[in-house]
Amino acid sequence: MLTSPVFLALVLSLVSAFCYAAAAVVQERTAAGTADLRGTLARGSWWWAVGLNASGALLHVVALRYGPLTLVQPLGALTLVVAVPLGSLAVRRRTSGTQWRGMALTLVGLTALLAATAAGQAPDDTLGTAEVLGVALVAFVVIAVLVRSGLGGLGRLGGLAFAAASGVASGVGSTLAQKLAVGPTLSWSVAVVAVLAVAFASAGLLLSQKAYRSGLGGPLALLTLVNPVTASVIGIGLLGEGFRYGTVGTLIALAGAVVAARGVVLLSRPQPRYGRYGRSGGQPAPAPTPDLTPAPDLTPAPVLVPARLLRARLPSAARLRPVTVELTGTSRTV
Known about the structure:
By secondary structure, this protein is mostly helical.
């Protein structure tokens, strides 16, 4: 088992998910502090995210060399499982009970998928040139529609549209990358596939950056769901990939997918951004305590006259005259 291709694909997918999760957290924090793409490219943190995404993509491609699309792509949901605690750690916020339940459900669902798809054999079939061009054309149309919807959407809805487009682009890019990983031969068709794979992977990265401006949870969850669905549809429909144990295996895989999707939805719920000493778990923040400190008394202090002057006898010839006291300005005069 430890030397089987599927086990190697599993280990590579786990490390790849960690790289993608770290990159997603860095991207979200970078997007929150920049207003446009030019400002994003000028920040060093974004290039760290690019490096982490590149490392995750490289490991993901190698995993596709040893495992089928229906196995490797759903393991991408581990990205969200890792990204949630990393995001909480980055903002010094405790992970809520809802998030822990989401992580548990996601892991249970992925375990069921792993049991139904881990056949122990490396893939030996890839898309043909005509199939590659057809998939690329359909994906381009779908991405264009989603991007247009994202540009016309407001706030969270626009971010979800960009996330869905990113998921489609990433799923197609992984499918094309598998063709390059499984015994490629030098030809013009392989060069076309390489260009298309890089283009879709880059589009997925830029679209995810756009999506994270509306937050991390929802866009990352939708991206995590759309990516394996896209790749699995291609793998089952065009490459003949399936599940073990016949109908029972298919039912196990579907049940695992439903459970994992439920976990991803729980993980995608927005959480309050309180600090280390703030409340967590979705509880409302306490109302601010009103400031009851009395306003300072700006009334000028009275002019004190020594008592011995008051007891002194005035000359008999002295006449009492009115005294004018000036209490304004920088000094007091009598």
